[in-house]
Amino acid sequence: MIDVYNATGDPSNSMQLTLCHYKNFSDKLQILRIANVPNWYFEKVVFPGEALLFQAPPQGVLEVHTSAKVTTILADTINCDRLRVQEQIYVTEDNIFPHQEDNNANNSANIVNIS
Description:
Elements: E1 4-5, E2 8-9, E3 18-23, E4 30-34, E5 40-46, E6 51-56, E7 61-67, E8 72-79, E9 87-91, H1 93-96, E10 110-114
Pfam families: DUF1830
Protein name: DUF1830 domain-containing protein
InterPro entries: DUF1830
């Protein structure tokens, strides 16, 4: 099961949201925040090595704050449209022709991006 985190905001606002992905590759605790969108706010703690799926407006800017001893430091900002998840389908000969004899032991998979 994959948890997708949502932000707080006005539910009556029909804002277009994009599924985004972020992974903390550092060895420090990070706080992610999106605060540049009016009437909408996102904040989440991400542990070292943790990956996060979340929904955000494409115009949102993700602030990555890295923990220091007593405070946090703004380490990076990333536009949310650059974190957008692109769905992928893995297509193999077995998926397309499931009853065909496999004469080639080294079938390679093709990746098809769906936008």
